[in-house]
Design brief:
globular, two-stranded antiparallel sheet, two-stranded parallel sheet, about 100 residues, alpha+beta
Protein backbone atom coordinates (compact mmCIF):
# COMPACT_ATOMS: atom_id res chain seq x y z
CA UNK A 1 0.00 0.00 0.00
CA UNK A 2 2.81 2.48 0.77
CA UNK A 3 4.48 1.96 -2.59
CA UNK A 4 1.13 2.35 -4.39
CA UNK A 5 0.57 5.66 -2.58
CA UNK A 6 4.09 6.79 -3.50
CA UNK A 7 3.54 5.74 -7.11
CA UNK A 8 0.23 7.62 -7.26
CA UNK A 9 1.85 10.71 -5.75
CA UNK A 10 4.32 10.89 -8.63
CA UNK A 11 1.82 10.16 -11.38
CA UNK A 12 2.45 12.44 -14.34
CA UNK A 13 5.88 13.44 -13.07
CA UNK A 14 9.26 12.37 -14.43
CA UNK A 15 9.47 9.28 -12.19
CA UNK A 16 9.40 5.62 -13.22
CA UNK A 17 8.82 2.73 -10.84
CA UNK A 18 10.14 -0.77 -11.50
CA UNK A 19 9.69 -3.68 -9.12
CA UNK A 20 12.11 -6.60 -9.08
CA UNK A 21 11.00 -9.57 -7.04
CA UNK A 22 13.57 -11.85 -5.44
CA UNK A 23 11.07 -14.68 -4.99
CA UNK A 24 12.36 -18.04 -6.15
CA UNK A 25 8.86 -19.28 -7.00
CA UNK A 26 7.44 -17.78 -10.19
CA UNK A 27 3.98 -19.20 -9.49
CA UNK A 28 3.76 -17.42 -6.13
CA UNK A 29 5.09 -14.24 -7.75
CA UNK A 30 2.42 -14.31 -10.47
CA UNK A 31 -0.26 -14.96 -7.84
CA UNK A 32 0.96 -11.93 -5.85
CA UNK A 33 0.92 -9.77 -9.00
CA UNK A 34 -2.67 -10.76 -9.70
CA UNK A 35 -3.67 -10.05 -6.10
CA UNK A 36 -1.80 -6.76 -5.54
CA UNK A 37 -2.46 -5.17 -8.97
CA UNK A 38 0.67 -3.02 -8.86
CA UNK A 39 0.50 -0.63 -11.82
CA UNK A 40 4.24 -0.33 -12.47
CA UNK A 41 6.61 -2.63 -14.36
CA UNK A 42 7.39 -5.86 -12.50
CA UNK A 43 10.22 -8.33 -13.01
CA UNK A 44 11.39 -11.56 -11.41
CA UNK A 45 15.09 -11.82 -10.56
CA UNK A 46 16.82 -14.86 -12.02
CA UNK A 47 17.86 -17.12 -9.15
CA UNK A 48 15.57 -15.39 -6.68
CA UNK A 49 17.08 -14.14 -3.45
CA UNK A 50 19.35 -17.14 -3.03
CA UNK A 51 23.07 -16.66 -2.44
CA UNK A 52 23.67 -17.59 -6.08
CA UNK A 53 21.01 -15.20 -7.36
CA UNK A 54 22.33 -12.40 -9.55
CA UNK A 55 20.24 -9.60 -8.02
CA UNK A 56 21.64 -10.21 -4.55
CA UNK A 57 25.23 -10.51 -5.72
CA UNK A 58 25.31 -7.68 -8.28
CA UNK A 59 23.54 -5.09 -6.13
CA UNK A 60 24.73 -6.25 -2.70
CA UNK A 61 21.18 -6.66 -1.41
CA UNK A 62 21.05 -8.68 1.78
CA UNK A 63 17.61 -7.80 3.14
CA UNK A 64 14.25 -7.32 1.52
CA UNK A 65 12.38 -5.15 0.90
CA UNK A 66 15.05 -2.92 -0.57
CA UNK A 67 14.62 0.29 -2.56
CA UNK A 68 17.15 1.62 -5.04
CA UNK A 69 16.54 5.07 -6.47
CA UNK A 70 18.29 6.05 -9.68
CA UNK A 71 18.73 9.58 -10.97
CA UNK A 72 17.98 10.64 -14.56
CA UNK A 73 21.44 9.45 -15.63
CA UNK A 74 20.91 5.96 -14.23
CA UNK A 75 23.25 6.48 -11.28
CA UNK A 76 22.26 5.22 -7.86
CA UNK A 77 21.01 8.19 -5.85
CA UNK A 78 19.82 6.24 -2.79
CA UNK A 79 19.85 2.71 -1.41
CA UNK A 80 17.19 2.18 1.23
CA UNK A 81 16.86 -1.02 3.23
CA UNK A 82 13.70 -2.06 5.06
CA UNK A 83 14.50 0.26 7.98
CA UNK A 84 14.82 3.30 5.67
CA UNK A 85 12.39 2.62 2.81
CA UNK A 86 10.05 5.24 4.27
CA UNK A 87 12.66 7.79 3.11
CA UNK A 88 11.82 7.06 -0.54
CA UNK A 89 9.76 10.23 -1.05
CA UNK A 90 12.47 12.45 0.41
CA UNK A 91 15.10 10.77 -1.79
CA UNK A 92 13.00 11.09 -4.94
CA UNK A 93 12.16 14.72 -4.22
CA UNK A 94 15.85 15.40 -3.74
CA UNK A 95 16.73 14.41 -7.30
CA UNK A 96 13.75 15.89 -9.12
Amino acid sequence: PNMKALYNGYSGKDVVFVGICGDDNSTEWRTALDKEKMPWVQGLADGGFSDSGAIKRLLSIYHIPYVIILDKNGKIAARLDADHKNESKTSIDGIL
